[in-house]
Amino acid sequence: MSVSDSAVTTWALRRSPPTSTTDLYHRGMYPLLVFTGANAPTTVEVFPRGEAIHYREYAIQHGVPTEAILIEPQARNTGQNIELTRALLAEHDIGVRSVTLMSRPYQQRRAYATCKKLWPEVDVICASRPLSLDDYVTSIGDVDKVINMLVGDTQRITKYAELGFAMPQAIPAEVELAYARLVDAGYTSRLV
């Protein structure tokens, strides 16, 4: 399959509900889906055969043609999602000028910064299923888990830039203050 220079390729990063991805595909937002991901400790029960495989099955069940889907089932973190997807597309001789990264709402900044570091020549758009915070917490079913995930991802925005995994980003003072207060309150289970 050949994709033009203006192609937009999308892949799901870590438990992004495939509903949004398939909906956008059916609206003609992009010609190809790349689902990427093995498992993380937080996803193995939901996706026992790996995230990419389950996402692919969901997309096919919801009308996405198999020829419009590639999977990358090995990635275990956001950097690998991007690097292995990039290699997969090159292997299929698919040129990419822009990508839409589908992720959890709170992961968009980090996904963007990681993609810009590892794949700087593509234009990057981030998206997630549109949910209010209350609806997101309800969908997860555990407010403490959500707060821990938010705190962990906030730390990773700075930490991963320091480690060279992502481009640096400015963190607003009020976000730094909220992060410190939540760490002090014990929301530390997702810190690196």
UniProtKB/TrEMBL annotation:
What Gene3D superfamilies does the entry give? HUPs (3.40.50.620)
Q: Which domain of life is it from?
A: Bacteria
Q: Which residues form the DUF218 domain?
A: 21-125
GO cellular component terms, A-Z: plasma membrane
The identity of this protein, by name, is DUF218 domain-containing protein
Its source organism is Micromonospora pisi
